């Protein structure tokens, strides 16, 4: 039997729950932000905060064209970064 962690959740289950939440979140993110492969000015902050893919801002270069693979990796990294403070 697998060892249980905090809250009675098996560590692998915690990881599975995180990935499930991220996959649902990614679908909503793309729906609300759109899917743009070229770095563009943020609708609120303008060119000082370039966006790309589905609203990713970290490391985005205005006017640069990103591949689908780069966008997927950037979105995954951004979502994990923002999920880290809420995942026990």
What does this structure look like?
With 88 residues, this protein is of the alpha+beta class. It has helices at residues 11-33, 68-83; strands spanning 36-42, 46-53. The protein is elongated. The mean pLDDT is 78.
Break the fold down into its secondary structure elements and pairings.
Blueprint: H1 11-33, E1 36-42, E2 46-53, H2 68-83
Antiparallel strand pairs: 1-2
Helix pairs in contact: 1-2
Poorly predicted spans: none
- How would a textbook summarize the main sheet? 2 strands, antiparallel
Average pLDDT metric: 78
Q: Taking strands numbered 1, 2, ... along the chain, how are they ordered across the largest sheet?
A: 1-2
Total number of beta strands: 2
Shape type: elongated
Gap between N and C termini, in Å? 22 Å
> How helical, in percent, are the residues?
40-55%
Radius of gyration: 16 Å
Briefly summarize what is shown.
This protein is α+β, with helices and mostly antiparallel strands and 88 residues long.
Overview features:
88 residues; 44% helix; 2 helices; two-stranded antiparallel sheet
């Amino acid at each position: 039997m697998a060892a249980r962690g905090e809250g009675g959740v098996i560590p692998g289950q915690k990881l599975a729950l995180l990935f499930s939440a991220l996959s649902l979140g990614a679908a909503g993110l793309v729906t609300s932000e759109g899917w743009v492969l070229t770095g563009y000015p943020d609708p609120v902050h303008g060119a000082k905060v370039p966006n790309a893919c589905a609203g990713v801002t970290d490391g985005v270069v205005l006017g640069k064209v990103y591949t689908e693979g780069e966008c997927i990796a950037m979105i995954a990294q951004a979502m994990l970064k923002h999920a880290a403070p809420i995942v026990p």
